[in-house]
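Hi V.,

You were right to ask for the full record rather than a summary. Here it is.
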Amino acid sequence: MVKKEGNIFFIPLFLPTDIKDNIKSYARYKFPETETYAFGRLIEIDQSGGDLVEIFKYIGNISASKEMIVKSGRLFDPIHVSMGFTKKRWQFIFEDESYDKIINSDYKNITFLLGIQEAPKLWQGGIVTEITSYDTNKYNQWEVYPPTKVENLLKTKLVHHQKQLENGK
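Predicted structure:
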């Protein structure tokens, strides 16, 4: 399946996550359907600043339906990633021909802070504007994450969620 905006991809949560694992090719690797995966959607392709993606709350095996994944909602705000698709570590499993990033991903309300020094700028829905002041807790810094960093973040969230369930919260 090709890299296309709106396509749903899986993120394996069982692969090694050392920094050197970001450059290993998984083009010939047969991913087992019964392992644990997170899922995301490609919102926007951006080779220079990292592809914009959203990660969903659903975590499970590959046999999940597209609707089940998307209806689970976002796990956190969209992020920029690189290298996950080029080395086939993350692979696309569902296409969405009717995908509209403005409607389906609320693109106009996705924001990132660009630079925090002298002349901060706000990226919102693809439009960059200069701002004079900002709340550092309100906006995420534009940062491009390698796949292993995203996977480690997801594993941490998964462990935290399981501990909450065990404690009855």
